[in-house]
TrEMBL record, chains A, B:
This is Glutathione synthetase. Homodimer. It comes from Oryza punctata. Binds 1 Mg(2+) ion per subunit. One of its GO terms (molecular function) is glutathione binding. Residues 1-22 are annotated as: Disordered. Keywords: ATP-binding, Glutathione biosynthesis, Ligase, Magnesium, Metal-binding, Nucleotide-binding. It is an enzyme of class 6 (ligase).
């Protein structure tokens, strides 16, 4: 969860069931996790991560889904295909990407290397006829403005479509069995086919790639690109490249990884994402899109533009002196974010003021490494969070991710869909119940009629 | 796996795939286990077993299914409904059970307590109108006699219907992906719906119990039987009691557990199993059924009797002096088994001779605590066994379990079916490849046309 968030209003749960019922639900739920694959590697087990299937523990989860007004849910779903289209359109404007990120490039080596690959592809006029995007747009409900605000748009390695789908199923199962204790109805947990939708999109991309494909005589090699652009690895032609890594500097410990990334980009394989889709997901581009008249360059439909703009929180670069001044005066209304991707290290509260003053003194490009963002004040609610088989009640805030799948082959848009969702719930920083702040769990959502 | 077994002939695998392919298969397979619930508690993790969903590891499994001639498979499947019927018929003859187990009773406290409950039920003429049996009959292929021989019949807590079904699915998936490397076809792995079949039987038993049921006003209590026999626990009427424990002395650490077992038996709830079904599964009853003219008392159909008798290995009680003499002379042809249920502690080889001589000296009822069984010489084959993410090749022997579900309501036989299977494969005691003898994995089977 990337957003900085302070709970503003606490939403009460319906009358709680007794501790006996909760204990029984926790046992049922953790057993359900074990037999349905809602498991992760256990960090406490040193063997976990060395080989699959070893050192497993149920994924941390919320015992019941988090409430969300149905109107907000529909709003978030409607945005998914529009964001899919937006990413695609922005990705076609190489100069926009290069120009927008030119300052970031000077202070962030990682983005700089990505831009270098992107520039090389521009130079050779690299065509990407088949374009596959598997995105996730993350939102929070801001209680100050009563609005759904976008936190970030993930265009690479959007995580948890598999486990997220399972949590929805877990919650439906628990509500079918225990819902009467909480006056809940499992039909109000939206279906969530994120994993199968993403799998379908990958399979369709494979189809598109292979439909007109010439037969290639098998070439033995450890990975190279043939003159026609075909990517060959160990004698097999690669049709679709899915990045489950490559989005943080840690994934590129040596030049070999950068060479591999370039090799993939040079090939004719479908990349999910291509270097340009990847760059569209940077925070700086998100910020550029929020500037006046920028969305209009990439989308024609005015209604769609209005819908998208409505979910943008305030985003400013630090060359806007007025905003920097405001943030020094009222740091509690802002979040200071590093430009680099991958989350973490956001700066809040009094540290915003101190960091801004320091950066101003350093001068030069120091300011370009950060952006300022409107601070969101999400609704807080009491949740039962289960980790390691143990249930904790805590004050929590939630972030809703909506998956989107997009596939285009030349002029033909093969898929452009909302593809399931992910709810993540974490202990609010203002929780004083003894549960560690920041402790996050997988969650699903429960649609309410309540207007907010 | 309960049978004593020495490998006689080693069956070779088809041409092996390279180590690269095996390594890839192991990673695919262990990941498949994690996401499909083919997991167990890891004994190496102290938290495992304290709460569900924690300390999990993939269940140990065989990388590929074990070969079995299709004719033997069909033979084993055909036996399932006959054994179901046999258990039911034998259970109706309370005197037969009491008489057959009278000697066992004197030397085995556990069986003695079960018989006491059974006797009490006989005294009150307890009726069991709805009878539910979820059994598993275990077999090995004897290479000496080329026959399928029954190892034991489990009438209580027959284990692994859930994980067993998953292993068949795992093997089909692996063969679909890698079968060409081994000339295997996934269609030759029989479908295995053991878990859903057992669930269906339990649900149908619930239906039968409730179909003519009067409405009961809810009674708050921690567990008692109403005058009409209704079992009430925490205010809820119990329709079906499934025993996942209660088959070893360890499950009865105090008188409270025996009182609970009696309470359940006194109730009108459907018991799976009832005390009489439980007793029919004892080794002593298996031995009695193998005596001349005993099957004829319980089954009418001569063909069925012939089929059942064909799968009985030799079984003798130690009051047969001739057999004891033979076993002392040729101990390698016999296994000495304790009468008590629960497996383990079988005696083989030279120890058979020494134990028999000691028991003869002790005299009295010491001999009654054991039975002698024909030693089976199962085929051995090379298998890749995967445990803790690591693959070991070893010389193995396999045991085939066939599940059977039986449900009768008065005169109406609601279900009498073969309900899936379980293959268990263990490292043969004569394996010298360094893998611990006795190390066992879950397996499935691959039907061959080969006659044996």
């Amino acid at each position: 969860m990337s957003a900085a968030a302070t709970p503003a209003a606490v939403e009460g749960r319906p009358p709680a069931a007794g501790p006996d019922a909760v204990g029984e639900m926790v046992r049922e739920a953790t057993a359900w996790c074990a037999v349905h694959g809602l498991v992760v590697g256990d960090r406490a087990d040193p063997r976990s991560g060395t080989v699959p299937g070893v050192g497993l523990v149920h994924a941390p989860f919320s015992l019941l889904p988090t409430h969300l007004p149905e109107s907000r849910w529909r709003q978030a779903c409607e945005l998914a295909p529009i964001f899919n289209e937006l990413v695609d359109h922005v990705s076609l404007d190489g100069d926009f990407l290069q120009d927008s990120l030119s300052k970031t490039k000077q202070v962030d080596d990682f983005t700089s290397r990505l831009l270098e690959i992107h520039r090389k592809m521009m130079e050779i006029n690299k065509e990407e006829n088949i374009r596959l995007g598997l995105h996730r747009s993350d939102y929070m409900l801001d209680s100050e403005t009563n609005s759904l605000l976008q936190i970030e748009l993930n265009t690479i390695s959007a995580s948890f479509p598999g486990l997220g789908s399972l949590v929805s199923e877990l919650h439906r199962t628990l509500i079918d069995q225990y819902g009467h204790l909480f006056c809940l109805d499992s039909k109000r947990v939206p279906g969530n086919a994120a994993s199968s939708q993403f799998a379908k999109a990958l399979a369709r991309a494979w189809d598109e790639f292979n439909v007109d494909r010439k037969t290639l005589s098998e070439v033995e090699a450890e990975g190279h690109v043939l003159p026609d652009g075909t990517l060959v690895v160990k004698g097999r032609t690669v049709s679709v490249v899915y990045f489950r890594a490559g989005y943080t500097p840690n994934d590129y410990p040596s030049e070999a990884e950068w060479a591999a990334r370039l090799l993939l980009e040079q090939s004719s394989a479908v990349k999910c994402p291509s270097i340009s889709y990847h760059l569209v997901g940077t925070k700086k581009i998100q910020q550029e899109l929020a500037r006046p008249n920028v969305l209009e360059r990439f989308l024609e439909n005015k209604e769609e533009i209005t819908k998208i703009r409505k979910c943008f929180a305030g985003l400013w670069s630090l060359d806007d002196e007025e905003i920097v001044k405001s943030a020094i005066q009222k740091p509690e209304l802002f979040v200071l974010k590093p430009q680099r991707e991958g989350g973490g290290n956001n700066i809040y509260g009094i540290d915003v003021r101190e960091t801004l003053i320091r950066l101003q003194k350093e001068g030069g490009d120091a300011l370009a490494a950060y952006i300022l963002m409107q601070r969101i004040f999400p609704k807080a609610s009491l949740s039962n969070l289960v980790r390691g088989g143990v249930c904790h009640e805590a004050l929590t805030i939630s972030e809703l991710g909506i998956y989107g799948a997009y596939l285009r082959n030349n002029d033909k848009v093969v898929m452009n869909e909302q593809s399931g969702y992910l709810m993540r719930t974490k202990v609010s920083s203002s929780d004083e119940g003894g549960v560690a702040a920041g402790f996050a769990v997988l969650d699903s959502l429960y649609l309410t009629d309540t207007s907010i």
